[in-house]
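User: Hand in any protein.

Assistant:
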Amino acid sequence: MSKLASIAGAIALSVALVATAACGAQRVLPPASGQSGATSHDLLYVVDGASASTSASASASASASAQRIVAFRPGGNPAAAITLPAGLVSQDHQYLVAASAHAGSTTIMLINTRTGASVRSFALAGTFATAGWGYGDAAMSPDAHWLALRDLAAPATTIALVDTQAGALVSSLRLNGDFALDALSPNGAMLYLLQNLNDAQHHYYVRAYDLMARQLLDTIVVDKTALDETQMRGSALTRQVSSDGTVDYTLYIDPAANIAFIHALPLASGPSGPLFAHCIDLPSGQSGALLRYYTLTMSADGTTLYAANAALGLVARVNVAGGGPGVFNDQVVAQAHFTPTMLATTTYGAQDPLYNGAALAADQRTLYVAGIHGIWALDTSTLRPQATYLSQASITSLALSVDGKTLYAAVPTQGIVLLSLASGQASPAAGCPAHAPWGIAWLTA
């Protein structure tokens, strides 16, 4: 993928606001006046536990299994919090699917996220997981009906296709070669895979498997505007999905080559396609190691993606308005560069990876982005910085309240912080049951 040249943007920094500590940790700064005692109407679902940023390692698998999701209302009764296992969540956030493996058998659980109650559970032979870093071990349809799982203990690539509504294994697939899961079509008929070529450059193909015919298609899914680039490289960092669940937009980075791009993949409902993809190159800076701070978020109408990296001071606006069947109009329509602020004590390796590291204001005019330290507020029309907040906090996740008035920030060493967008005041989220919040998965009213 070619790199796009960065366009210099004007810098408009405002005074950084004070960060406060929150639940379950020692305060490092005094709390600001504001909302710490108020009860929020928002129900926050927080990923609690260490991130597993290297899923191939045993330690990462252990940290993934130790993760949980806790749901609570800031300022509410901590005893009313809901605890869920880590897993895959339906696009409407109503259902969570979790896998628990033991002694060669895995229990699959379908859970109601509003109550924490089990809808159904059933057992599969094999060792499967739905939690962890990346997308290679599990894929699910947007409505949580269809689930594909890769057997982690099998010597060859073995994939189970599961119907969570029936609570049953539909089929088991065995493939020759080294494959990882990528995505599942909404109707559960097509499975998209990454075929690792196991070369020195870690290249791979994007492949499609027809689950109805039980056949791996010969076609390699490529960007038809760059037919010489059948092989891909890099690792998936974050993903956005179209509102109808038919297109995945995955942000990939390759730190060694210092490149970042969005891989737009239409999820066809059958082998007739269209089977193609489109790669959208993103700007990169002088440090490939900082590419992992890229974020990706989508506008409310689903026509625009914002890719931003506050550690490198880069932001791009990408048009993803549909161009009809088999056609992509995806392109970077604007980009800008700003000078990020860093604390003298910044250490890149100590920072957890971002989890939902950006959020759009309710009026879509402001993009809030987490950086190495603090939050940047960017004007979506000019892509220029308007303000910075919580500059002394290492923030991994952001979410906007349902009423659009409060920005929630996850600080793993401190807790959840509430930032009033009207007053600029920050306060701890009282009653938070998370001990080490890594990310805010979603929230509801």
